[in-house]
From TrEMBL:
<dbReference type="InterPro" id="IPR008928">
    <property type="entry name" value="6-hairpin_glycosidase_sf"/>
</dbReference>
<dbReference type="GO" id="GO:0005975">
    <property type="term" value="P:carbohydrate metabolic process"/>
</dbReference>
<keyword id="KW-0378">Hydrolase</keyword>
<keyword id="KW-0175">Coiled coil</keyword>
<dbReference type="InterPro" id="IPR052043">
    <property type="entry name" value="PolySaccharide_Degr_Enz"/>
</dbReference>
<dbReference type="GO" id="GO:0016787">
    <property type="term" value="F:hydrolase activity"/>
</dbReference>
<keyword id="KW-0732">Signal</keyword>
<dbReference type="InterPro" id="IPR010905">
    <property type="entry name" value="Glyco_hydro_88"/>
</dbReference>
<dbReference type="InterPro" id="IPR012341">
    <property type="entry name" value="6hp_glycosidase-like_sf"/>
</dbReference>
<dbReference type="Pfam" id="PF07470">
    <property type="entry name" value="Glyco_hydro_88"/>
</dbReference>
<protein>
    <recommendedName>
        <fullName>Hydrolase</fullName>
    </recommendedName>
</protein>
<feature type="coiled-coil region">
    <location>
        <begin position="411"/>
        <end position="454"/>
    </location>
</feature>
<feature type="signal peptide">
    <location>
        <begin position="1"/>
        <end position="19"/>
    </location>
</feature>
Amino acid sequence: MRFSDLSLAVLSCASTTLAARNQTKPSAYGQWMATSFLSKNQVIRHTYVPAVTLEGIQRVATVNNNEDLLEYARSSVSSLVSANGTVTGYNDTYYTLDDIRMGNNILHWWAAGGRNETKYEIAAHRYRDQLNRWPRTPEGGFWHRAPTYANQMWLDGIYMADTFYATYTSYFDADNVTAWQDIELQFDLIEEHTRNHSTNLLYHGYDETKKAVWADPETGASPYVWDRAVGWYFVALVEVLQVYPQSLPGYAKLASYFSTLAEGIKNVQDVSGGWWLLMDPELAGKEGNYIESSATALFTYAFFKGVRTGLLEKEYLPVANKAFGLMLDDFIIYEKNGTLSWNGTVEVGSLKGDASYEYYTTVPLSLNDGKGAGPFMYAASEYNLALKNETTVAHLDHAPEKKIGQPASETAKLHAEIAELKAALKAERESKTYKRLQDQIHALREEIKDMREDKNFIGDHLASSVLSIMVQLDFQRRIDKGLVVLAEHLNA
C-alpha cells in the first residue's frame, strides 16, 4: 500500500470510529495530527523542519504502537541516506547547526533497528566528524552558522546540535569525559551570557565579540526573550539529561539549569495556558505581542517529560495540562475532510538583523509549520505517557473534548483567515503608496476593537499579523486586491 493510500485509509478509519463516538479524547490528537500530516504530502528533505516533524510522528507512533506511522517515519529518513552513508542534501563543508538536527533521526533509527544498519552508523559518524571541525568562539562555543554568524551562539543551536552530540557520545564514546565536558560547556556558555537572573529566562542568543548591532555591551546578549528559542533550549536540556552520565559533575549542573528555567517559564505562563511570543514579563499584552503555538508545544512537552523522568516536581503537571488544552482549543484547525491543521506558529526568528521588538512581532505566522506541529506531537506523546503512568494520571485534568468536524475556536479561525489573506496579498501586486496602506491599517485597528474576543490575544494578534504583511511587502508594490479582501473580511 502506498503511503498516500495508507494515510487516507487511516484517516477514514479514525474518522469513522471517532464519529461513531461523536467526540475525541485528548489522547487521540497526536495520532490524528500525525496522520493528517501524511495526507498533506510534506516534502522530506535534509533540513531541521522535516527532522522535527518526522520525530514528532515517530514519537506518537511509538507511544501508540502504530506500526504504519512508524514505518512512514523510518522510510522517510531512510530515503535520505544512501547505502554508503551519504545523506542527500547534507554538506559537511557548510557549517550551520540547523543541519545537524537530522542526525538525531538517523541515530534513532540506527538504534531502533538493532544497531546493525551500517548506513546509519556511517552517516552519524559524518555529522560527528563535522563537529570536530566546527568553528568556535574564543571560549569554545559552536558558532551558530559560519561565516554568517561568527562568534554567535543561539539557544536554537543547542537543540539542533548538542542533543545529537550527546546521544552520539552515549552510543559510541560513552567513556569520553572530554566530550561530555564539551557538551556541558555549550550549555554553560549560553547560561553565562544569556540568562536573566531576575526572571530565570534566557535571551535569544549572544555575540561573544559584542560587535552585533543588538549585542549588550557587557554580556553580548540579544535584547529579547524569544519564545521558540527558549523552547528549543528547554527541550535540549531534558533530552540531554536522558543520556548524560549522572556520575559526572555536569549532570547536576544541567539539571539545575533545567529546573531553574522551568520555574521561569511557569512564572510567565499566560492565564490562557500559553506563552507570549516575546516572554519578557513587561511585554505581556503589549500591542503586537501574542500567544504563540510552537513554544507552547515545546514547553508542554518538556514539562510533561520533566515530571515523568523525575527532573521536575508534579506541581508542573497543571502547567503542562493547561497548555495542552489551549493547543486543542486555539491552535488546531478541524478541517472538513476530517484532518487536522496546525496554526499559530511564527515563521522564523533570527538575529540576522536588529533583533528589535518590531522585527519579532511582525514576522508572519505559518500554517501547518512543522516547527509547531512537530512539537505538538512531542507534547501529545508525553501526554499519553502521563495518562498511562499511574503515579501521575491522578494529577491531570483532562483537556476539553472535541467533536469530529467541530469548527475551530475563534482564535484558530482567525489564524486560518490570516493565512488566507496573506496568500491573497501575495497573489496580485499593484502600486500603492505607503500612506494609503497606513490608512488601511489604522482602519483595521478600529475594526479589530469591535471583534475582540480576548483583549490580549485575538485583536492584537490579528493587528500584528496585518502589520507583518505591510512590513514584508516592498513599499513600492502594494496589493489592491488584498486590501479589498481585508475590507470584505472585516465587513462580513
